[in-house]
Structure formats: structure tokens, C-alpha cells
Amino acid sequence: MTSSLPKTFATLLQYGLPNDFAKRVRDAGLTVTKARALSITDLILKYGLSPSEAKLLTESVRRQPIDPDVVSLLLQRSNFLCNVCKGDKGVSYILHHIVEYEQTQDNTYDNLVVLCPNDHDLAHQRGLTLRITVDQLRQAKEDWEHQVKVANAQRAAQKKDINDDAIDYGHVCQVAGNPSARQSVEILPQLQEKYPQYLRPEMTSVQFVQSQDRCHLEITTADRVRDYLVDETSKRTDLAFVSGGSRAFFSPSSPITENVRRFISEFDEVSIIHCTDLFTNEAATRIDEHWRRCGVVPGSL
Ligand SMILES: [Zn+2]
After folding, report:
1. Average pLDDT for residues 109-136, to the nearest whole number?
2. Which domain holds residue 132?
3. Angle at Cα 74 formed by Cα 71 and Cα 76, nearest 5°?
4. CA dihedral defined by 210, 213, 214, 218, rounded to 10 degrees?
5. Which of 88, 123, 101, 290 is nearest to 198 (CA)?
6. How far is the CA of 94 from the centre of ligand 1 (A)?
7. Which of 85, 176, 236, 269 could pair with 6 in a Cys bridge, judged by C-beta atoms 3.0 to 4.6 Å apart?
8. Do residue 139 and residue 258 come from a single domain?
9. 231 in helix, strand or coil?
10. Can you state the percent helix, strand and coil of the chain, rounding each to 5?
11. pLDDT at position 139, please?
12. What's the gap in Å between 78 CA and the centre of ligand 1?
């Protein structure tokens, strides 16, 4: 059983790295601390980054990190989409400083906007023809956040809660002798019931795990190595950066049964594809396309 680093991806976002790149950096086994210590040559030769990626990483991790609450608010209020093209040019995202970081070091909510890499390039254009100006960025952010808020409210009004009685919350496991240390609930059966067509088939267990200071998922997959050999891998997905309004969506101070209920009945498909690896790539693409086309989650596709 192996475990990947839970916090690294969210931390890399705090340094303003594009989400795709942050995932690759994490998957390469790099952390912010390692990236700070390594030379550009090492990042290229030992970790397979391109020269421009190595330079971007080195420069980014020397900045002051953006507060994690600010990161999650920006992403939630934008539904993880570019505020300018609303995802039309691609669903990758990057947190952009509206007034350049070098000028002000301003990491506040008001100075940040979610952009796709394409519009991010345009925001950094020096020429006047294509450049997206500071005023245009502010307007785009205000407009898109408003649209998202309206769409979310409509979605909440339409939503049918699934029948809580059907969910078995009975199997809370605790570490013996220390009741507050770590609790977990197996949620794969509930997920299979709710999302039979979306889930990755290789998952053998999905545990919602809660300790005193954080909540995460532990997803176990079984890969057939040869005809009969099965390799089990467990991977953690941190839920600490998922926020609902100003506070964490899954709070470690709430009972684990309440957090599990929220995960099953309130956490929607769009959030699931952006925050976890529970769904197949095909399902994620369909949900994403539907979201971009209609501005609502697909429900039952
Ligand atoms: Zn865009």
C-alpha cells in the first residue's frame, strides 16, 4: 500500500501554479520545500520538467503563498472555471493577480481572478490589441461570480435530496484507545448507488476519513498486474480546501456522519470531478461539457 502526499496539490495552487502543472509537479514527487531547494538543472534532469516549467516553479515557490481560504473561495465562486471565457477555451485554471504580484505582493481575494492558461497569456500581453485589461478582468470576475451564484441557487432549489434513511452510517471505525484520533466510514456502496455510471470501476474502497484537524478521502484501487496478480494502491484526497461559503465544506469539528451525509447528498458532480478522482475521465468530460453548456450539473445524464 502506498500513499500520495495529501496536501501538496492544494499547496501548489497557493503559489499560483496552473492546476494541470500542479498535478504533474505533485505526481513527480515534488513538494514546495523540495522545489525551493533544488536547482533548475535538477528540476529538469531529475524531475523531467521543461526549462520554462522549471523556471516557473522556481519563481512561484519563492512568492508568499495565497491564503488557502482565498484559494478555495475563488475556485468555488468561479466553479473552477476561467472568469473570462467561462471554460470555453479549456477547463484548466490558474490564479492570476489582477494587479501584478511584482508590483504589490497583493494576495487578497479582490486582487485575484481564476483564468484559463489562454486568457492568462492575454492578461500578460504587453501589446494593446489583444490584452485583457485590469478593468476587464475585474468586470469579468464580478459578472461570472454573479452567474455562478445564480446558477448554484437554481440548482439547490431543483435538487432532490436522496433518501437519507437508505444510507447506512453505522460503520464508523475508530482507532482503539483514542476516540478523537481518526474515524473513517466506507462510502463506496452509497456512491455506487448514486453514481453507478460515473465511478472508476477499479476502486475497491472509498473511505471518508476524519481526524481532529482534517477530512480526506482514502481511495483504494486494485490494478490487475498480470492475469492473477492484483496490486492494491491507496491514495489520499485532501478535502480541507473545499469550502462552502467562508468555512470548510467538510469541517473536522462536525460529526463524521454529518460530513458523510454532506458528501453523499450535497456535494455535486461538478465539485466531485474537480476535487477528487472518483469518476472516470469520460464521465468527468461529460459532466464538464454539460456544465459549460447549461450552467447546471447534469443530474442523471
Ligand atoms: Zn479563459
Report:
1. 90
2. 78-158
3. 105
4. -50
5. 290
6. 10
7. 236
8. no
9. strand
10. 45, 15, 40
11. 96
12. 12
